[in-house]
């Protein structure tokens, strides 16, 4: 299994990743259910994705992305403490961990899945650069019921090309990431709008575009 993972990571170190476990699962369900839409997905290179879109998902999902090696122990410990106090809502997963889940794993919470997620995230950080991890994440994360990746999300949800996304657009898309099947970028709720504003402030507080230079 480890050898197969390493080979896969080496093959897709530069090539566009065509699909993910989550996308495949949705397309299979869509074959048998008229209520489930088929996946919409268009690959966009990192160079084509505005820097504020890159920054928005970091500000929203993993502000220590430039510092950790796949696992953010600070965020994980905070999530565990919250869980022990009965206030746990998940969280603590890095962008790398989320990408691993999207590409290879399944929904739900279990120690087995979390253990696999941690192990694969560590291997991924060895073979892929931070920029590559961010690029693949931005192209496989789910932003709408059928829209995976910022290419499909910007075109189908905001009706504009990726290159024309503004900072507010980027923050809006990032705001639905915790639950894209529940929250909408097309008809954002008050909660989503509040998250959008918070993400815009967080983008500034972590250093703005200068933060991305730390990924080199």
Automatic annotation (TrEMBL):
<dbReference type="GO" id="GO:0016020">
    <property type="term" value="C:membrane"/>
</dbReference>
<keyword id="KW-1003">Cell membrane</keyword>
<keyword id="KW-0573">Peptidoglycan synthesis</keyword>
<keyword id="KW-0472">Membrane</keyword>
<feature type="domain" description="Glycosyl transferase family 51">
    <location>
        <begin position="40"/>
        <end position="203"/>
    </location>
</feature>
<keyword id="KW-0328">Glycosyltransferase</keyword>
<dbReference type="Pfam" id="PF00912">
    <property type="entry name" value="Transgly"/>
</dbReference>
<keyword id="KW-0614">Plasmid</keyword>
<dbReference type="GO" id="GO:0016763">
    <property type="term" value="F:pentosyltransferase activity"/>
</dbReference>
<protein>
    <submittedName>
        <fullName>Monofunctional biosynthetic peptidoglycan transglycosylase</fullName>
        <ecNumber>2.4.1.129</ecNumber>
    </submittedName>
</protein>
<keyword id="KW-1133">Transmembrane helix</keyword>
<keyword id="KW-0997">Cell inner membrane</keyword>
<keyword id="KW-0133">Cell shape</keyword>
<keyword id="KW-0961">Cell wall biogenesis/degradation</keyword>
<dbReference type="GO" id="GO:0008360">
    <property type="term" value="P:regulation of cell shape"/>
</dbReference>
<dbReference type="GO" id="GO:0009274">
    <property type="term" value="C:peptidoglycan-based cell wall"/>
</dbReference>
<dbReference type="GO" id="GO:0071555">
    <property type="term" value="P:cell wall organization"/>
</dbReference>
<keyword id="KW-0808">Transferase</keyword>
<dbReference type="InterPro" id="IPR023346">
    <property type="entry name" value="Lysozyme-like_dom_sf"/>
</dbReference>
<dbReference type="GO" id="GO:0009252">
    <property type="term" value="P:peptidoglycan biosynthetic process"/>
</dbReference>
<dbReference type="InterPro" id="IPR036950">
    <property type="entry name" value="PBP_transglycosylase"/>
</dbReference>
<keyword id="KW-0812">Transmembrane</keyword>
<dbReference type="InterPro" id="IPR011812">
    <property type="entry name" value="Pep_trsgly"/>
</dbReference>
<dbReference type="InterPro" id="IPR001264">
    <property type="entry name" value="Glyco_trans_51"/>
</dbReference>
């Amino acid at each position: 299994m480890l050898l197969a993972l390493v080979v896969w990571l080496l093959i897709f170190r530069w090539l566009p990743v065509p699909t993910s476990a989550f996308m495949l699962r949705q397309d299979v369900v869509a074959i048998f259910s008229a209520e489930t839409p088929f996946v919409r997905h268009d690959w966009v290179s990192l160079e084509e994705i505005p820097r504020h879109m890159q920054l928005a998902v970091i500000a929203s999902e993993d502000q220590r992305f430039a510092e950790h090696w796949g696992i953010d122990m600070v965020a994980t410990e905070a999530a565990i403490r919250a869980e022990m106090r009965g206030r746990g809502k998940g969280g603590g997963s890095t962008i790398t961990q989320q990408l691993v889940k999207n590409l290879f794993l399944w929904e739900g919470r279990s120690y087995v899945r979390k253990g696999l997620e941690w192990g694969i995230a560590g291997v991924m950080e060895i073979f892929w650069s931070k920029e590559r991890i961010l690029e693949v994440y931005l192209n496989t994360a789910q932003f709408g019921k059928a829209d995976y990746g910022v290419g499909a999300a910007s075109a189908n949800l905001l009706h504009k090309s990726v290159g024309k996304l503004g900072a507010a657009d980027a923050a809006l898309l990032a705001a639905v990431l915790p639950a894209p099947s529940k929250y909408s970028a097309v008809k954002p709720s008050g909660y989503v709008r509040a998250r959008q504003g918070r993400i815009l402030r967080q983008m500034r507080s972590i250093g703005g575009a200068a933060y991305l230079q730390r990924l080199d």
